[in-house]
Inverse folding.
């Protein structure tokens, strides 16, 4: 080395630890999934449709009953929840199949080789988004009963008779339905078959169970209690009926833990089983 020359060490060689944390961490994957999810036009459309459906249907239900002598506006706050839940279900399916529908899963799993981390991030994002939509749907339901209540000089009492618990349980039901759709969508990976499966479980299965119970009953029998029990027990295992039972149990003033654990367990099973199936398929099968 000559006397008049100096060497400057390269920054990349002198600080090798600067880029150690540049990998796909859980926080970064969740942030990426949130940006992708909220960037989809279908997400905004379905979210607005769910809130609007809740408000409009609640207004119709409450308005049709406003002339009854025992009218109580709070009784109609959760009547639109089953139909609103269908839109949350469709939203979950759309989010679960979005990457596979567009082919973006190839880029996603190259950037994040830990496939289960991506699925976990999708669960977190879907639950958070569905929670926001559920709060908006509950708020729209409250607004929906105001015209019918005003016609009778009544306002809904949102703080009495277990109403906060009932509204919270209704919101939990909506979130669970979105996660159910996500799990089935991530498991099936095709939007149309996944929608057919979840809508069949939510809408068609309860009708078939009701028809089966009617066919199993004896029309000449004096009492139809056995037929009612035949219909009630299978219906309790459907996600929509479980959500309604959860809200009903939460609204009770003397609620027992078992009254809540039953429908909550049914909802949890509907959510967990498809997600576990999707996780197993991610780990053990090729992405196609």
């Amino acid at each position: 080395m000559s006397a008049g020359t100096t060497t400057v060490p390269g920054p990349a060689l002198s600080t090798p630890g600067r880029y150690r944390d540049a990998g796909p961490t859980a926080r970064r994957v969740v942030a990426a999934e949130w940006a992708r999810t909220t960037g989809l036009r279908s997400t905004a459309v379905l979210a607005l449709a769910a809130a609007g459906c809740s408000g409009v249907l609640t207004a119709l239900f409450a308005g049709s009953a406003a002339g009854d002598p025992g009218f109580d506006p709070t009784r109609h706050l959760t009547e639109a929840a089953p139909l609103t839940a269908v839109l949350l279900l469709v939203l979950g399916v759309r989010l679960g199949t979005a990457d596979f529908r567009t082919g973006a899963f190839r880029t996603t799993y190259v950037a994040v080789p830990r496939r289960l981390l991506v699925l976990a991030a999708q669960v977190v994002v879907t639950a958070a988004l569905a929670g926001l939509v559920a709060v908006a749907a509950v708020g729209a339901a409250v607004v929906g009963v105001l015209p019918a209540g005003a016609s009778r000089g009544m306002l809904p009492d949102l703080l009495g008779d277990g109403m906060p618990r009932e509204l919270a349980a209704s919101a939990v039901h909506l979130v669970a339905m979105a996660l159910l759709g996500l799990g089935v969508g991530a498991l099936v990976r095709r939007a149309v078959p996944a929608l057919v499966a979840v809508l069949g479980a939510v809408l068609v299965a309860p009708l078939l169970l009701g028809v089966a119970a009617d066919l199993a009953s004896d029309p000449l029998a004096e009492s139809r209690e056995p037929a009612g029990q035949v219909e009630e027990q299978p219906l309790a295992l459907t996600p929509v009926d479980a959500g309604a039972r959860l809200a009903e149990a939460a609204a009770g003033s003397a609620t027992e833990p078992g009254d809540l654990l039953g429908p909550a367990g049914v909802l949890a099973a509907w959510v967990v089983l498809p997600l576990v199936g999707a996780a197993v398929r991610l780990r053990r099968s090729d992405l196609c």
